[in-house]
Amino acid sequence: MTKLIISPSFKRAFKNIIKKKPELKYKIESKLRLLSDNPYNPILRTHKLKGKLSGAWACTVEYDCRIVFCFEQNQETLEEEINLIDIGTHDEVY
């Protein structure tokens, strides 16, 4: 299980999405659990990003909801962690 690190920008975007669409909360939490268990689970449709977000990755919550994240190595434990950067619609996060 990979540790998820929640950035302030992700937390802010998550709160905004939940205000607009409260029914997404459980779907997002479920996808975050899947991401923590196996970032490459086919259900997530994980893919590498290009352009200004080069080096970051994204996965799908539902048709028009994406989670943007980076794989990082913890300097103390040397374990891989997932840094959650942003969440929102395709146009909002890309």
From TrEMBL:
Q: Which Pfam families match?
A: YafQ_toxin
Keywords, ordered alphabetically: Toxin-antitoxin system
Check the record and name the SUPFAM superfamilies matching this protein. RelE-like (SSF143011)
Q: Does the keyword Membrane apply?
A: no
> Among its keywords, does the record have Nucleus?
no
NCBIfam families, per database record: RelE_StbE (TIGR02385)
Q: What is this protein called?
A: Plasmid stabilization system
